[in-house]
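Hypothesis: this fold can be encoded by more than one sequence.
Test: take the structure tokens below, design a sequence, compare later.
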């Protein structure tokens, strides 16, 4: 329970007055080991998704990390972000909209996973990512029960939308580390999505804003709007 003071501090810093049950790391980790039921990505309520974690994807041993294999794939430009003034906005259909500094985000439990990154352009790489779980961030924002999708905006103008089930999968991280080191700028620092259940183009780098919504907009993603598949599951 040594994390409790820092969590409280996180709440003070963020100005939260109420705290969802999910915030208590104990409740969360109790259910995390349980393999979820049938995967029904689009029909499950927020509550069901957050309390019944989905099936975990097997990970790779650290010895299989391929440090040279992850190709930097940036279509526009590499944005300059000042980590001291950076804020992650979480808004939309939520009871508790958030504007979080990196220091506040680092108060959340840190997770690492070694997974395969797959780009549709024909390459893949085993990478270890470290960061906070999207499900913890979503829980903090207290989504309304009709939320079904998450939109991600990036500092380079890239944008993406995910089904909520995939966004709150326990292995979907907002990563600030790659292969045990601080995330390099070209790979999306300070925060990028990383998940073993989606293709590379879903995994937004330089995420600045997460908006939880109940309907997909006409605009679904940088590549999707040019004809790529939206779900893009692995
Ligand atoms: N903001 C942003 N995110 C992005 C991209 C991008 O150009 N801009 N490229 C995507 C693609 S196609 C892939 S394969 C991965 C590549 O991540 P990497 O550059 O860290 O290898 O980032 C994804 N996320
Ligand atoms: Mo990609």
């Amino acid at each position: 329970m040594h994390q409790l003071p820092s969590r409280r501090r996180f709440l003070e810093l963020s100005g939260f007055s109420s705290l969802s049950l999910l915030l208590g790391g104990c409740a969360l980790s109790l259910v995390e080991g349980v393999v979820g039921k049938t995967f029904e990505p689009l029909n499950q309520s927020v509550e069901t998704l957050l309390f019944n974690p989905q099936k975990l994807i097997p990970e790779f041993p650290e010895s299989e990390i391929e440090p040279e294999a992850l190709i930097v794939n940036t279509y526009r430009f590499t944005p300059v972000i000042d980590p001291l003034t950076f804020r992650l906005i979480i808004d939309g259909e939520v009871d508790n909209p958030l504007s979080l500094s990196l220091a506040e985000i680092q108060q959340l439990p840190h997770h690492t996973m070694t997974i395969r990154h797959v780009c549709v352009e024909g390459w893949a790489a085993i990478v270890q990512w470290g960061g906070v779980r999207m499900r913890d961030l979503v829980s903090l924002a207290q989504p309304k029960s009709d939320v079904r999708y998450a939109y991600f905006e990036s500092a380079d103008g890239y944008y993406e939308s995910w089904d909520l089930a995939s966004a709150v999968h326990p292995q979907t991280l907002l990563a600030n580390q790659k292969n045990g080191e601080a995330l390099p700028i070209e790979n999306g620092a300070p925060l990028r999505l990383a998940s073993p259940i989606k293709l590379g183009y879903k995994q937004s780098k330089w995420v600045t804003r997460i908006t939880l919504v109940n309907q997909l907009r006409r605009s679904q993603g940088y590549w999707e709007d040019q004809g790529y598949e939206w779900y893009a599951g692995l």
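Strands lie at 88-92, 98-100, 111-119, 123-133, 149-154, 159-163, 173-178, 181-182, 192-194, 207-213. The radius of gyration is 17 Å.
Hypothesis status: open.
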